[in-house]
Design goal:
Low-confidence stretches of chain B: 1-15
Number of strands of chain A: 10
Order of helices and strands of chain A: EEEHEEHEHHHEHEEEH
Largest interface: A-B, 31 and 22 residues
Order of helices and strands of chain B: HHHHHHHHH
Radius of gyration of chain B: 23 Å
Number of helices of chain B: 9
CATH class of the domain at 8-102 and 170-248 in chain A: Alpha Beta
Largest sheet of chain B: none
Number of domains of chain B: 1
Largest sheet of chain A: 6 strands, mixed
Low-confidence stretches of chain A: 1-5
Number of strands of chain B: 0
Radius of gyration of chain A: 18 Å
Helix content of chain A: 25-40%
Oligomer: heterodimer
Structural class of chain A: alpha/beta
Chain lengths: 258, 280
Amino acid sequence: MRETDSAVVLETRGLEVATPAGVGGLRLGPVDWRVSSGELWVVAGPHGAGKTALLETLAGLIPAASGSVRVFGHPVQGSGDDETTLREARRRMGLVFDGNGRLLSALSVGENILLPWCYHRNAGPAEALTELEPLIRHLQLGSLLARNPASLGRSWSRRVALARCLALGPGLLLLDNPLAGLDAVHLRWWRGFLAEARAGHPILGGRPLAIVATTDAARPYLGMDPRFALADGGRWRILPGIDSVLSATGEDGTRNSG
Amino acid sequence: MASDPILPAREPGAAGSPGEDAGLLQELLEGWRNLTGLGAFTLITLATARLRFRENSRVVTPRIFGEIHRCGVRLLPLVGFLGVVLGLVFVGQTASLMEQIGAGNFTGTLMVTVFLREMVPMTAALVVLARVGTAAVIDLGTARALGEVEALEALGIDPIHYLVVPRVAGFAISVVSLSLYLLVVGLASGYAFAYARGLKASPIEFLTQVAGALHGLDFPLSALKTGIFGTLIGLVICYQGLARPLSLADVGAATTRTVAVCGVGCLMIDAAFIAVYLLL
C-alpha cells in the first residue's frame, strides 16, 4: 500500500522510554510526537540521554514504561500490541543500529542484505539478488557482497546495515547516530541519501520516507532542513530550529561540556 | 546489581554458616529459575516449530540442512573412529570373553542391553555436545552479546524460528543418525576383533544372535531416546546462548552451564528409559 505524502507514519502518546531491562528507572519522556512521511527528524542530545533507547522502543525492541507507539497505525507499544501487529509494523520500518549496524557475523555481507527479503518473501538468494541488485548498486555495495562483515570498516558496515533495512522497502527509517565518525566521502554520501530518501527515490519505490535520526551533534545536518527534537536530562522537547539545537547541544560554544 | 568485587576473606570452619546457607538457597533458586525458564523456552520453541512449520521454508529448511551437516556429516570421521574403538574395547572383548567362558549364547543380550541401549546413544550425544554444542553456545552467546538477535527482531525475523528451530531439529536428527552409524561401526569392528581372537561364530551368526536379543521396541525406543537427547542438547544450547541477556564476559560461564545441564539432563533421560526397558 502506498502512503500519501502527508500521512502520519509514527505517532507516540505519553511515551515514557525506559532503560533496557536490568538498569531500571525512567529515562526519557513523556514523548508526544508525530512523524509524517517525507519528514527528516533529528533527535539530538548528549550521550546517555536515551536516544538509542527511544529508537529501540519505537521499534518494539524494549518495552515502554508507559504510553503508546503506533507505526502506520499498527500498535507497537501500549494497548493492542501483539506479535502480529508488531511483526507487521517492523516490516514497514527499518532500524539501523549505531556503530557497525549489528550485522550478523555468521553471514556474509550479501547474505546479510538478502536475508530479510528472502525470509519475508520466502525466496531463495538468487531471486533476492535479482530483485535487490539495483539497491545494492545504488548503495555501492556490489564489490563487498562476498566479504565477511568483520572485515569491513564502520562506515561500510553501517551502509550494509542500511541496505539490509531498505531491502523490505520500509516507509519509516530509524537511524541511530548515522553520521557519527564518518569520513568526508561517506558523510557526503549519507547526506545525499537522506535527501533523496526523504524526497522519494525510484530505487526506494518512489515514495517519500519518514526518517528519524539521532545524533550527539546537530552540525552535520546543517543545510538539510530537518526538524529537531532534543532529549536531555530525561526531558523531551521539540525545538524550533537549528540555532536552538546548536545552543542546547553546546555546539555554539555557549554550553560547558562538563 | 553487580556484586562487590572485593570478596571478604573466608573464615576457617565457616562451612554451614548462615551466609553459606543463603548462598546455597540462592543457587537452588537460580537452578529452579533456569529449569522453569528452559521449560518455557521449550514450549515456545515447540509452538513456533508447529505453527510456522511451512513458513519461510526456503530460508529455514536450508538452515536445518546446514545444521545437520555441521552436527552430523562433519562428525562422521570422529564418530567412526569412536565406533571402531568402542567396538574393540567393548564388543570385541566381551564377545571373545563370553565365548571363552562358554557363555556365548548371552553375547547378543549383552550387546543389546549395554551397547545398543546405553553406550551408543550416550556416546553420540556427548560427542555432539562436546564437538559442536560448546561452539554453538559461544556463537549464539556472542551474537546475543553483540546485539545481533535484536537486529533480527528489528527486521521482523523471529529469532526462535530462524535461529533455534533449525538448530534443535539439526541436533535431534544428527544424534539419531550418528547413533545408528556408531552402532553399525561398533558392531562391525567388535566382531572383527573378536574373530581375530578366535571367535567361531560367522558374521551372520553373530548378527543373528544380536538380533535375537532385540525386543521389537528396541529400535523405536532407541530412536526416541537419541532424538530426545539431541532435542535437549539443542534446546539447552539455544536457551543458554540466546534466551537471556548476556555480555561477552558471560559467554564462557554459559558454555560451562550448558555442558553441565546437558550432561545431567541426558543421564536423567537415560534413567527414565532404563525404567521403560525394565518393563519390556
